[in-house]
Write a structure and sequence with these properties.
The protein is mainly α. 71% of the residues lie in helices and 0% in strands. Helix 1 runs antiparallel to helix 2.
Length: 173
Amino acid sequence: MEPTTDPGVSAVHRPRSDAITATRQELALLICAFSIIAGAIHVEAAIGHFEETWLYGGFFASLAVFQLVWGVRMYSRPAPDWLRLGSAVSLAVVGIWLVSRTVGIPFGPEALQPEAVGPLDAAATVDELAIAGICFLLLEQGLPAMTSVRRLASYVFLTTTTLALFLGNHSAH
């Protein structure tokens, strides 16, 4: 019996290369979704931060544009250099967020004053970590087929951050 490439057939019954291709496509879709959600959260953050200073607002607006464009690019053509760029940007944003929540940003109108953690910024940070993790998975050569547990965890993260975007405190980031 010859293995099938029918998308409705379990990855266990497909040749390994088909399972890896399907996993890579699913991860590319997830990375796109996480990036677009993080970008949408950062649009919201930009609006509020422009009231404080153009520097903060401009940072969030630029980050949002990058994440929206990068997410779509990753779905259509997830090239290794772009994956490295996306993971570096995401981890840098997580680092900035950690500094802003612990000791405060060292410049601006509220220099060295830590911000409170809100649902939107927490969701964006989870998205950033998910983006970096998926980038690392996509850069792996021996990518294993996506298991049901990992798939479920990915969709739970995606659903949670989407809900935070729509239900969260719109003034925090």
